[in-house]
Amino acid sequence: MSNFTLADLAAIIAERAHASAKESYTKSLLDAGPARAAKKFGEEAVETVIAAIEGEPKALISESADLLYHLLVVLAA
C-alpha cells in the first residue's frame, strides 16, 4: 500500500497550477474557471456512483481517485 496522501495530491495540483495549460490538464481546468472544474467533478461523481452500483471494485477505486482529484481541483479553483 502506498503512503500517498490527499495532501500529496493537493501539492501536485498546486505545483501544476503554474505549468502551461498545453502541458497540464490540471492547469487547463484551472484556467477554464471554477464552473468547468465543478462540471468535471460532477461527471466524476456520477461515474463513481455507477461504479459503486455495478459492484466493480477496480472501477470504483479508479473513479474514486478521479473524483478526489477533481474535488481538489475545484477547491483550488
Structure report:
With 77 residues, the chain is mainly α. It contains 4 helices and no strands. It has helices at 6-16, 25-32, 34-54, 57-76. Helix 3 packs antiparallel against helix 4.
Write the layout of secondary structure elements.
Layout: H1 6-16, H2 25-32, H3 34-54, H4 57-76
Helix pairs in contact: 1-4, 3-4
Question: Quick recap of the structure?
Answer:
The chain is an all-alpha fold and 77 residues long. 78% of the residues lie in helices and 0% in strands.
What integer is the average pLDDT?
96
Strand content: under 5%
Overall morphology = globular
One letter per element, helices H and strands E, the order comes to HHHH
Q: What does the largest sheet look like?
A: none
Runs in which pLDDT lies below 50 for 5 or more consecutive residues are none
Radius of gyration: 13 Å
Number of contiguous helices: 4
Could you estimate the helical fraction of the residues in percent?
A: over 70%
Provide the descriptors you would attach to this structure in a database record.
single chain, 78% helix, 0% strand, globular
